[in-house]
Specification:
InterPro entries: CH_dom (IPR001715), CH_dom_sf (IPR036872), Parvin (IPR028433). Its main location: other. By secondary structure, the protein is mainly α. It folds into 2 domains: 108 residues, Calponin-like domain (Actin-binding Protein, T-fimbrin, domain 1, Orthogonal Bundle), CATH 1.10.418.10; 73 residues, Actin-binding Protein, T-fimbrin, domain 1, CATH 1.10.418.10. The chain is 49% helix and 9% strand. The chain contains 12 helices and 2 strands, in the order H-H-H-H-H-H-E-E-H-H-H-H-H-H. It has a two-stranded antiparallel sheet.
Length: 226
Amino acid sequence: QVLIDWINDVLVEERIIVKQLEEDLYDGQVLQKLLEKLAGCKLNVAEVTQSEVGQKQKLQTVLEAVHGLLRPHGWVLQWTVDSIHGKNLVAILHLLVSLAMHFRAPIRLPEHVSVQVVVVRKREGLLHSSHVTEELTTTTEMMMGRFERDAFDTLFDHAPDKLSVVKKSLITFVNKHLNKLNLEVTELETQFADGVYLVLLMGLLEDYFVPLHNFYLTPDSFDQKV
């Protein structure tokens, strides 16, 4: 669900809503849009493909672009065109976790998630099944690199009860500066969401003035907030 919410957040401007990973991602359409948005690129693929051949060709192009980004950084590629198109949920999850970590997605994936996969092989005319454990996530340090961790990660992991104290301290700090403009913050999450207070605060901290015509003082759409 964390990955679904992340995808929908990234693609909100595309008016794409993912509800089920294996059903919505197998044909390459959503993966194409996701990669283009994350990487800031444009892939040379057909927008809509109904045939299986066309879908696999699109997937091939998308995954080649993904591999070009991930392979130099040592990611183990645990998916193929056939596994994604075959709606293999484990392969799709491997792909999405790698993308989320590579692009530093603002999400917190649960650690040490693994699944039991049934592997069926045919030997001497008989089918033999075995169970294999697939690890989808390890620790945040191993997936992101220890250098990516900061004080807030430590706070969330080891002292979540102290979060309210930190928020109060930040509100005090913010108001110390915004009060100069007769503004006051009581809720960081809501009052900083549209970017207005953030622009004003940055100007106060760095001692510069942002012309009011350069941004919307009362934004009412996503584009205006961005």
